Amino acid sequence: MTEFVVLIPARLDSSRLPGKALADIHGKPMVVRVAEQAAKSKAARVVVATDHPDIQTACQAHGVEVVMTSNQHESGTTRLAEAANTLKLPQHLIVVNVQGDEPLIDPKLINRTAEVLVENNVQMATAAHELHDFDEFMNPNVVKVILDKNRNAIYFSRAPIPYPRDVMRAEKR
Predict the structure, then answer these.
(1) Structural domains present in the chain
(2) Strand pairing partners for 48?
(3) 101: exposed, middle or buried (C-beta count within 10 Å: 0-12, 13-18, 19+)?
(4) Are 48 and 37 contacting, i.e. CB atoms less than 8 angstroms apart?
(5) Which long-range contacts (CB under 8 A, 24 or more apart) does 149-152 make?
(6) Model confidence over 71-98: pLDDT tens digits?
(7) Which among 4, 27, 43, 146 would be 20 to 30 A from 91, CA to CA?
């Protein structure tokens, strides 16, 4: 397996649950739990990329590598690009984006994502899988993604994609 790095974007100003990255999960902040899961993968390095000193402090207190980024990013992807530049990661290095609110992510999924990146000569990606459950499809806590014909992500949403207008109308009755 080619060497890869896990970068975890984490911000404090979550619109749905402010302070989510620092939410206590059995005595540790969520973002630390995510980093611990990622560290169980075959990643050569796991780094949290954040814009908030409280997240930086929490990570440092638990021995998690952290890099500070701007608070002006509109997406985790641009935050990770800044982090990769700050960390001086080589351009050829594989980077797996693990969301900062996935404390139960399976390390095998991280490894498989890295393998797929190598197989497809892609440098960075976020893991995704097909949804087969209607409740997950409707759940705003589950991020959905639209892929192009080459399996590149072109759109992310917490809302169902496409939005099932007729189903939603029936549920409201």
Answers:
(1) 4-127 (3.90.550.10), 129-173 (no CATH)
(2) 8, 66
(3) buried
(4) no
(5) 151/120
(6) 888 877 888 899 999 999 998 899 999 9
(7) 146
Give the Cα separation of 4 and 44 in Å (integer): 6
The two structure tokens encoding residue 27: 């005595």
Cα angle 88, 94, 100; round to 5: 85
Q: 16-28 burial string, b = 16+ CB within 10 Å, else e?
A: eeeebbbbeeeeb
Residue with tokens 């192009």: 148
pTM: predicted TM-score of the whole model, two decimal places? 0.81
Give per-residue burial for 132-166: e unless 16+ CB within 10 Å, then b.
eeeeeeeeeeeebeeeeeeeeeeeeeeebeeeeee
